[in-house]
Design a protein that fits this description.
The complex is a heterodimer. By secondary structure, chain A is mainly alpha-helical. Classes of the chains: A mainly alpha, B mainly alpha. At the A-B interface, helix 1, helix 4, helix 5, helix 6 and helix 7 of A face helix 1, helix 2, helix 4, helix 5 and helix 6 of B.
């Protein structure tokens, strides 16, 4: 009976995994197909793989767009982690005037729809001659990223026992040293979670990217959207490009997978 | 550092060294708060006030702005397109998020078992939410295609009728919900797993010894630890679906006949296709207000849930 339940549980887990894996596998398969095989009816499962789609993707603007995406996402994430951790630590340790209101306000920025800020950002950046630059998107992404960082990191700082920090103070650490050498290392899981969510948020964003960039600073999703409109639908190229764009994200997910669940418990899970 | 520590440090500096320390403390606090809040005000308040202003003008890019007062809003509220978009946005949110929460809880328990290979399975399940919604929409469109799509092929192999995904008003909406559920159920599962990880093991052992029924176990033991993560999931998922743009934009382009046009898509069209910036700003303000109401309600539910969880000894 117990073994039966166990087998049923494992079977269910495999079934759930298959549901999520199948579409991904199907794109990977599609990226190795020729045009004819892609549009074959019924769909083909076994075929001679071709690298042509990948060669096409590397010859297009796509590598440059991926580079743009990575530069923008990494810069915005670094800025947001630094500012976000500082402020989260501030909220967690010091009582300042209207702290509750400020915290709620910062959280509500994460909820701000991109459609609401896209018009003013467009006009402001046009006036500053910053349209189609990395800086514009880096700044814009800081808005949601900082808000998320403050909010996750505060949960982690709240869980750190004050005695540890007081002991460090008695040892002669200044407040900034306590923050850097005691609090931050203890909030590692929070930093990992914040980093991955800020990175994917900025890598994946589309509406602001498509409105604020035109060519030079174009990000990968924007590039993909144009492939589709200019040349009809080249599904082979799109699949190959999607797979290339997924690779850094998958690698990063593998690296932080253990911190991920812990991170989402806001430091409560030991 | 506790509150007392700060106070004692700041009350009556006896020596020059202590005075310097007090000053340094004030500077430290400024570093903690001022740059972040300054940047956020610049990035959020300024554009919002700006867009509120623009929404009161008849303003198209390249032409002069004309003051029209609330005319944009009146036109909006009398436009059946707007009400359709609002209905569809709310429909997507209610249907998709409910399915995601129910499946997320189920999958969370399934993923909470321990056996070799579970970490690989978890990794696979977490992948969809890491991908760009735009890319996800793209390859689902490929799979939903009427002639060469794999979805209809599999349906007909199972002896079911092929479905006109993406071109039928009802099925196009179902398709958007399916893809949203595929991509975001993992997020709910992740939060559920995090919540399950905080359940004390001795509580579970006691329940097993007492031969408690599964429902009792769920209600009495798991639920108190799941309430907070689930409310968080509800908050993030509702807000993100209320402002949904990428997925229907790429999957159906808002069609057929606007039946998958969300409010964000409506605003985008006003701005990019008709250059009607004033109207776009008015639409975006409606989205802001709806989201604000939902956020307020959910945060109010979350705060006591969090306090309660701390109270239960965490």
């Amino acid at each position: 009976m117990k073994i039966l339940k166990r087998i049923l549980g494992i079977g269910l887990a495999l079934f759930v995994a298959a549901l999520f894996l199948f579409p991904l596998l199907w794109v990977v398969l599609a990226s190795f197909k020729t045009k004819l095989e892609l549009l074959a009816v019924p769909p083909v499962f076994i075929f001679k793989p071709t690298l042509q789609n990948y060669i096409n993707a590397f010859r297009s603007d796509f590598p440059m767009q991926v580079r743009n995406s990575l530069i923008i996402a990494a810069s915005s994430t670094v800025i947001s982690i630094i500012l976000g951790s500082l402020t989260a630590y501030g909220f967690s340790r010091y009582s300042i005037k209207s702290s509750d209101f400020l915290q709620f306000w910062i959280l509500s920025l994460r909820m701000l729809p991109a459609i609401a800020v896209v018009v003013p950002f467009y006009l402001v950046f046009r006036a500053l001659k910053l349209l189609d630059t990395h800086i514009a998107l880096i700044l814009v992404y800081c808005l949601t990223n900082i808000s998320f960082a403050v909010w996750v990191m505060k949960g982690f700082f709240d869980e750190i026992p004050l005695e540890l920090e007081e002991a460090a103070m008695l040892d002669g650490y200044s407040p900034p040293q306590v923050f850097l050498r005691v609090a931050l290392p203890l909030a590692r899981a929070g930093l990992a979670t914040t980093t991955i969510f800020c990175l994917i948020q900025s890598l994946n964003e589309f509406l602001l990217a498509v409105s604020l960039t035109t060519r030079v600073a174009e990000t990968a999703p924007v590039g993909l959207s144009k492939v589709q409109t200019l040349m009809g639908v080249d599904w082979g190229l799109l699949s190959a490009a999607s797979v290339i764009f997924m690779i850094p994200i998958i690698i990063f997910t593998i690296i932080v997978r253990n911190e991920l669940v812990r991170g989402m418990s806001f430091g409560r899970m030991k | 550092m506790s509150q007392e520590a700060i106070v004692s440090q700041r009350a009556g500096p006896a020596t020059a060294v202590e005075a310097a320390a007090g000053l340094r403390d004030i500077w430290w606090r400024r570093i903690l708060f001022v740059p972040t809040i300054g940047l956020l005000i610049l990035l959020a308040i300024v554009p919002l006030i700006f867009s509120l202003g623009v929404s009161l003008f008849n303003y198209s890019l390249g032409s002069r702005a004309i003051w029209v007062g609330l005319r944009n809003y009146i036109n909006l509220f009398t436009d059946p397109q707007f009400w359709l978009a609002t209905r569809i946005t709310v429909q997507f949110t209610v249907v998709a998020v409910s399915i995601e929460v129910v499946l997320g809880i189920l999958f969370g328990f399934v993923m909470n078992q321990r056996f070799t290979g579970m970490s690989v399975i978890r990794l696979i399940v977490f992948l969809p939410m890491m991908l760009a919604p735009f890319v996800v929409g793209l390859f689902w469109r490929f799979m939903f295609d009427q002639t060469f799509g794999i979805v209809d092929y599999l349906l007909t192999q199972l002896g079911l009728p092929a479905i006109p995904w993406l071109i039928h008003p009802f099925w196009a909406r179902v398709a958007v919900v399916i893809v949203d559920v595929w991509q975001w159920t993992p997020f709910v599962t992740l939060l559920v797993l995090a919540g399950l990880g905080t359940v004390p093991t001795d509580l579970l052992e006691a329940a097993t010894l007492d031969r408690a029924s599964n429902w009792m176990k769920f209600r009495q033991i798991y639920w108190p630890y799941l309430r907070f993560p689930l409310l968080l999931a509800l908050l993030f998922r509702s807000i993100d679906t209320l402002k949904m743009f990428d997925l229907p934009f790429i999957l159906t382009g808002g069609g057929p006949g606007n039946y998958t046009s969300t409010l964000s898509i409506l605003g985008y069209r006003q701005q990019i296709m008709f250059f009607n910036v004033g109207m776009a700003a008015a639409i975006s303000w409606v989205v802001v207000i709806i989201i604000n109401i939902v956020t307020n309600i959910l945060v109010r539910l979350i705060t006591p849930a969090k306090a309660e969880q701390v109270h239960t000894g965490l």
